[in-house]
Amino acid sequence: MTHYTTIVVGGGQAGLSASYYLQQQDINHVVLEKHTLTHTWRSQRWDAFCLVTPNWQCALPGYPYTGNEPHGFMTKDQIIDYLDGFIAKVNAPTKEGVAVQRMTARPEGGYLLNTSKGDFTADHVIIASGGYHTPIIPRLAERLPTQITQIHSEQYRNPQALPEGAVLVVGSGQSGAQIAEDLHLAGRKVYLAVGDAPRCARLYRGKDVVDWLAQMGYYDIGVDTHPLREGVRDNTNHYVTGRDGGRDIDLRRFAHEGMQLFGRLESLEGTTLKFACDLGANLEAADAVYNRINASIDKYIAEHSIDAPIGTPYTPLWAPKEERSELELTASAITSVIWCIGFQPDFSWVDVPVFNGRSYPGHTRGVTARQGLYFLGLPWLHTWGSGRFSGVARDAQYVVQHLAATGLCRERQQAV
Description:
Elements lengths: L1 E8 L3 H12 L4 E5 L5 H5 L15 E2 L2 E2 L11 H15 L3 E3 L3 E6 L5 E5 L2 E10 L6 E2 L13 E4 L13 E5 L3 H12 L4 E4 L9 E2 L2 E2 H7 L35 H6 L3 E3 L2 E5 L2 E4 L3 H25 L22 E3 H4 L1 E6 L3 E2 L5 E2 L21 E3 L16 H24 L1
Parallel strand pairs: 1-2, 1-8, 2-5, 6-21, 8-22, 10-19, 11-12, 11-19, 12-15
Antiparallel strand pairs: 3-4, 6-7, 7-8, 9-20, 13-14, 16-17, 17-18
Helix pairs in contact: 1-3, 1-9
Protein name: FAD-dependent oxidoreductase
Organism: Pseudomonas reinekei
GO molecular function, one term: flavin adenine dinucleotide binding
């Protein structure tokens, strides 16, 4: 049985960032990856995918973005090139194709990891496998007509890969809104079930909204000081796009152009889908967040006497005349359904009592109450950027520094 001082589970940007700092501390370690390094970016993104945050926020440790478009948005191929460069930069000790099946605490200290390629032990474990593991697909999907193609957002690639006919997209978060746009731009008939996801502007008063929020210190706010505290982890990401240089996603404009919008999908009766009558309320709530963010930028500009172009609140260009609660599948010629309602975390393999009643790991900045067990790469692990290229380096550095300090203290105690 092979023993390491530290085992990192997961070979995405979080796991590789951990390896970067572990190497700086000269800590013996290995990165175990179920598939291949940065697998998710290569296998779970559609062809037209691009970042929704500016390239300058790509700040992986020792490997910041250095291209010619800091305020642009990398496409899928460019992201993979960036990650390939990071992989080469870190040169992490890695075992690919190794799935961790169970992890338990050892009576003598440290952890035992049972994997698809044998057992390993470690004094410390950093779980960096992210928080998006199991695609969410509702049970009503089982009762849809068998001739309808059903996929999850992680399986979507392009409009041409779907059967001819209309497409129902369920969910209007970042993936749902962008996939609906991708289909709409390709001339497909799109039905969109709109949820409660908020939205934000791409550009406002002369700059990208992300630039303003960074200048305002928003991305430095920790979950411990955020007004919502840990509740912020339940927030849905704002929908916006970096496509074609970046722009707003306005579902009202799509509706004006022919996309069919409905409220939240509730049930299926025979071949008739039933929707909540909340489309108008959901659109208004998304617009309210949009205007509220812009208003906070207005306030900041005024307080700091910044010379910037005048801004105006968003004015809706379309509103539903009535709430439609039903959609008959045959009459609407829907041949495909894309489920864009997110993922659930799956840490069932971690047999260590560190989870709360919602199966979420209890931690402070990734440090759990169990000696030597850490988490990295979770959304809002500490800040907004924790699960992204912009903030994972800071989290990884903090976790590794804590690991190194506690490991040194333990060695000193054992020596005494």
